Amino acid sequence: MNIARKGPGTGARPPRARLHSSAPRQSLNGTWRFRLSRGLAVAPEDGWNTGDAAWTEGDDWTGITVPAHWVLEGHGKPAYTNTRFPFPIDPPNPPDENPIGDYRLTFDAGATFTDGAVLRFDGIESAAEVWLNGELLGETRGSRLTHEFDVTGRLRENGNLLAVRVAQFSDASYLEDQDMWWMPGIFRDVELVATPAGGIWDVFTVTDYEAADGTGTVDLFVEASSAVRLRIPELDVDLDATDGGVIGVGVVEPWSAENPRLYTATLEAENETVTLELGFRRIEVRDSVLLVNGEPIQFRGVNRHEHDPLRGRVASPERMRQDLLLMKQHNVNAVRTSHYPPHPDLLALTDELGLYVVLECDLETHGFEEIGWRLNPSADPQWRDAYLDRMQRTVHRDKNHASVVIWSLGNEAGTGTNLEAMAAWTRAFDPSRLIHYEGDWSSTYVDVYSRMYASFEEVRSIGEEIASPAPFDATAAQLHRRSLPFMQCEYAHAMGNGPGGLQEYQELFDQYPRLAGGFVWEWIEHGLGSDGVYSYGGDFGEDVHDSNFVIDGLVGPDREVRPGLVALAHWYSPARITVLDDAVRIENRYAFADLGGLTFTWTAISAQDGELDSGELKTGPVAAGEVVVVPFPDELAALELPEIVTVEARLAHDTAWAGAGHVVGRGERVWLNQAEEPVEAVAPADDSFDAVSLRLRSLGGLRLDGPEVGIWRAPTDNDRYPGWDERDLPPYAERWHVAGLDRTRTRVVSSAWGEDALRVTTRTAPAGRDFSVDGEFVWRRVADKALTVEVTLTPIGTWPVEWARLGLDFVIDAAPRELSWLGRGPGPSYPDLAAGGFTGRHTVAAGELYTPHVKPQESGARAGVREASVVTDGGTLRVTVLSADTPDGSVAVTVSPWSRKVLSTTAHHHELEADGRTHLSVDLFQSGVGTATCGPGVLPRYRLAARPGRVTLLLEEV
Ligand code: GAL
Questions:
Q1: Strands (E), 91-159
Q2: Which of 440, 494, 622, 768: CA 20 to 30 A from 306?
Q3: What percent of the chain has pLDDT over 90?
Q4: Atom of ligand 1 nearest to the CA of 438
């Protein structure tokens, strides 16, 4: 086995489309025999693959599931690196320590396949040599690419031996350095597929839609060994298609992500019938704007890797459907298959459910960046055939899917002529789709200008650029790039608590027609494990790894919806709703559909009495892109002072991805007033306060301690990285630590018991520092178990860094049970991450107080809060905001079973140990979260420079 050469695989038939065909197939998935060796040099040549009947297996063989990664089946371990190769950069040589898996399967095929057949492998990582009955069929390269070997005349009816030797690392590994787990094995389906005489080998349907007259065409190419008939019953097409060519089908309903209309077609040859789902649509670029069916569209996209926490990149129909349904339910309309072709069945689902697909080739050479891109295969002509082979396998397999609108050459493979060659081949073969590649910013051979994690300013300037004339000395390449629409193939890095900044990007996408939207990085957190116990890089003893950088997603490893996805659904909503004083403004953000598919309902809420009334809001017809302002209906206008008016857009009918009533958009207006201050007040009893700290120790029967002034948070992933806009500074987590936000101490400066109040002044400062926050606390007893505290906080000295928050921390001596509040919810919110949903009364149980981030960090703040009841095993504390000098008079409340210290020092969620107490923070201000793990940090307007604050709280045991 030669796994140190620069070429593509050998021996396979030319790539072709994945067809839904009547030709018999036989799955060879199941339990195979397996043996692992440490390296190629010691992999036994003992006749295991010869088909010799006398050969018997030794005790180094076991059973293994196919498809599976052997490292998840008890043989060796997974390993995670982001960009670094886990072996020396010495292309095309893999390391000597290179696990080699030998697979054997004996099977009967019967008479079905004697006429002609191929043996199909949909994915083997990273290189394999394949023998059937002792005969070498060839080698595979391209872990996520299909290889079909002709077994006609080689297959027996009974007792076939299929033997596959798989190398974990090979020359191919240099082209497959995606940011993900290294997980070898036969991890996609293996099948025997009949290729009957009088059958169809390949089909290419290039569909088109002419918006001007509503007609469709299909340009057909068929490779068959008999005459072929095309039928599209719904369009009355029934004709001889043996020679292919352009076929007009008359007026059709076009395909789009909004209305994924498909027409079933059949191609009937003598001995085989192929069924196709045709979608008529056109994707094009005009005046730097991306158009589908003649209308500008925006990608409201996500990047999707294939991942299952137990099975790795082994995809199942259930997971695929689950992912796509969740995307559609959260207003996502596009998916980039980062960074390789997905399981082939995914595309039938994107066609059916309606998602634009950027289909990416299995290519990334990112590790060469570490050595300044020296030796990069992209620029080495000896690798050219390998590059072309990868692209051809990518395009051929999925070329019949309407949802695929862009071919992507790969990801982060630097620059070089091999990429240009891929683009040239693709353009010649399939001019109906656009070509994407981000890694070469010159963009000379692509059809979209693409970048990842570009800052807000840069995205704006790219949007604006085309409004002014090109510079007189612009080169041809620059002029070409100006003619292209712009997309962010990756933005808003959804790692840990985040991503912040979705709103600002969306506003830019909405403002400039050249900006075709983007794809959030990324969909799934790649934790390995189950039931909340997930591993990341380093957990398998890897000496080279990138820790929890593999845990970045809008959904958790088991598809738990993270707050970032809730926020994204809001910004990606097709209906933007703004509740005005006496009317509702609704913007239709569909590219094609009117608002007839949605119903709008209003709800009027009073803080004390709950829902007052609700009803339907009639919008009348609103075409795509239009805005209407609908006056409040009479019933709503007649209501006296509702404190909250919410308007929701819901699906009017069942769809393939959600039932009628599913909420796709929401807007609200809040007129809440401050709660009334109690009038009667006396000084509180001194036995409720700690003699040293003068903090409250009891309230009625509640044992507690607080408040302490709090300005730190348990660093989020984003706090632990410097934003791309300030890479010369250490990350916030470090700056906070240096300044000492995580180790403040409080001294009582003065205290005085008056008749009506206890007055305490304090100084809170980091150990070893002289800047502080001075506090004044005025305590009054207003009822038996009720106190008010009037708090004034003032920063003193020069704080060298912004704060994480400014708030009051309490610890209740009993475990949390539940939190009820009046404010935004039910999810958490941070200033630049509006995942909170809507304003009202919400209740969450103890287990929903926080987000179970695989790596613990700050989470769970509920914002816009006016009143909160913290239910614990030891009683309930109700906190009411009587006044606050915050923009809307509300505070943020965070309740956690863990202290911030514990959160910041524990590696995995499942290792967190609760201390049986309730950690409560009432924050006047919070810093945003940003996306510094990849991209811009917290925008200046969401940062929290040292500042004063005032709040008056009513604390009651209830
Ligand atoms: C990008 C890359 C992704 C991922 C991301 C960070 O540069 O394309 O694959 O690594 O950074 O999570």
A1: 100-107, 117-121, 124-125, 127-132, 135-141, 147-150
A2: 440
A3: 96
A4: 8
Asked whether residue 542 falls in the same domain as residue 580, the answer is: no
Domain assignment present for residue 628? The answer is yes
Burial 767-804 (b: 16+ CB within 10 A, else e): eebeebbbbbbbbbbbeebbbbbbbbbebeeebebbbb
Contacts of 859 (CB under 8 A, 6+ apart): 497, 563, 716, 828, 850, 851, 853
Closest ligand 1 atom to 495 CA: 12
Residue 699 lies in a domain: yes
Q: Which atom of ligand 1 is nearest to the CA of 493?
A: 12
258, 306, 490, 504: which one is catalytic? 490
Task: Give the helix/strand (H/E) hosting 635.
Answer: helix 634-638
Report the alpha-carbon distance of residue 158 to residue 106 in Å, rounded: 9
Residue 636 sits in a domain whose CATH number is: 2.60.40.10
Per-residue pLDDT tens over the stretch 629-649: 999 999 999 998 789 999 999
Q: Is the pTM of this model over 0.85?
A: yes
Annotated catalytic residue 457: no
Kindly state if the Cβ of 352 falls inside 6 Å of ligand 1: no
Structurally, how many domains does the chain consist of?
Answer: 5
In this structure, the residue with its CA closest to atom 6 of ligand 1 is: 934
The pLDDT of residue 727 is 87
Give me the CATH number covering residue 811: 2.70.98.10
Residue at 4 is within a domain: no
State residue 395 phi and psi, 5-degree precision.
-70, -45
**pLDDT of 901 over the 90 cut:** yes
The Cα angle at residue 206 between residues 203 and 211, in degrees rounded to 5: 155
Contacts 24+ apart (CB under 8 A), 458-465: 459/486, 459/488, 459/505, 459/508, 459/515, 460/508, 460/512, 462/486, 462/512, 462/514, 462/515, 463/508, 463/511, 463/512, 463/514, 463/515, 464/512, 465/514
> Token pair of 206, please?
């290039």
CA atoms within 13 A on the CB side of 175: 39
Residues 397 and 299 occupy one common structural domain: yes
Residue nearest ligand 1's atom 2 by CA: 179
Cβ(908)–Cβ(534) below 8 Å: yes
Helix (H, G, I), strand (E, B), or coil: what is residue 79? strand
Instruction: Tell how far CA 813 is from the center of its chain.
Output: 38
**Ligand 1 atom 11: the closest Cα is on which residue?**
934
pLDDT for 130-181, tens place per residue?
A: 999 999 999 999 999 999 999 999 999 999 999 999 999 999 999 999 999 9
Q: Is the CB of 492 under 6 A from ligand 1?
A: no
Rounded mean pLDDT of 38-58?
Answer: 96
Q: Specify if 285 maps to a domain.
A: no
Same domain, 232 and 315: no
CATH number of the domain that 117 lies in?
2.60.120.260
The residue to mutate among 362, 520, 521, having the most atoms of ligand 1 within 8 angstroms of its beta carbon, is 521
Query: Which residue in 762, 766, 796 sits closest to 777, CA to CA?
Result: 762
DSSP letter at 183? -
pLDDT the model gives residue 609: 86
Domain that holds residue 250: 202-271
The 3-state DSSP class for residue 458 equals helix
Place of tokens 């953000």: 589
Q: Side by side, which strands form the sheet with 949-957? A: 744-753, 758-766, 772-783, 786-796, 949-957, 875-884, 867-872, 816-826, 837-845
- C-alpha to C-alpha distance for 424 and 276, rounded to whole angstroms: 27
Q: Which of 490, 520, 724 to mutate to test the pocket of ligand 1 (most atoms within 8 A of CB)?
A: 490
Angle between helix 502-511 and 563-571 (nearest 10): 20
